[in-house]
Amino acid sequence: GWVGSPIDVLLGMDVLGRFEFGLDLRAGHLVIARPRTIRWRGARLPLEPLAGVPSVTAVINGKSVRAFVDTGARLSYGSSALATGVAPGRSERDFYPGIGVFDTEVRELPLEIAGQHLQLEFGTLPAALAGLLGATGVDAILGADILRTHRVAFQPGRRTLAIDQMA
């Protein structure tokens, strides 16, 4: 119900981590392939698993942070420290597994990742989730909203995330 469409299966990194997969939402494409077979244009950045979740280094609102990449998260999220100096645009209700339903203040923040500069909406992490992530050194979650403007290929065997802005 929180995603807004019916779901029959949720594939996690326990399965997807064995393959390469590319997402191009504008074209309606999902490619799942054997390791080292996707040829994807665009910038590449190191993809490091933390607690089984893919993570990358990004610059959010001028601060370098470690961020989980979670295509199952509807919004991106950041710690309250990342939102310093930016007023919230709205409040939104969301859901996160293990945390449940929560309200978050949403702000548009500058994001730099793999040489790409964009503005993304970030919710403020609820305290319970911020505490869990902080214990792993993670300050943000990059959610599915990046897929609206960019093609993304996860290449766990190469430990790489390829990101390409759509024309």
Q: What would you say this structure looks like, in words?
A:
By secondary structure, the protein is mostly beta strands. It has two helices and 13 strands. A hairpin with a 3-residue loop joins strand 8 and strand 9 (100-113). The N and C termini lie far apart (32 Å).
Termini Cα gap: 32 Å
* Average of pLDDT: 87
- The number of helical segments is 2
The dominant shape is globular
Compressed to H and E, one letter per element, the order equals HEEEEEEEEEEHEEE
Cα-atom radius of gyration:
15 Å
Assign a percent range to the helix content. Answer: under 10%
What is the makeup of the main sheet?
6 strands, mixed, barrel
Q: Please report which band the strand proportion falls in: under 5%, 5-15%, 15-25%, 25-35%, 35-45% or over 45%.
A: over 45%
* Number of E-type strands: 13
Q: SS-based structural class?
A: mainly beta
Low-confidence stretches: none
> Strand sequence of the main sheet, in spatial order?
5-6-11-7-10-9
Explain briefly what this protein structure is.
With 167 residues, the chain is mostly beta strands.
What's the arrangement of secondary structure elements?
Blueprint: H1 13-16, E1 20-24, E2 29-33, E3 43-46, E4 48-50, E5 53-60, E6 63-69, E7 76-78, E8 90-96, E9 100-113, E10 116-124, H2 127-134, E11 140-142, E12 150-155, E13 160-165
Parallel strand pairs: 6-11, 7-10
Antiparallel strand pairs: 1-2, 1-12, 3-13, 4-5, 5-6, 5-9, 7-11, 8-9, 9-10, 12-13
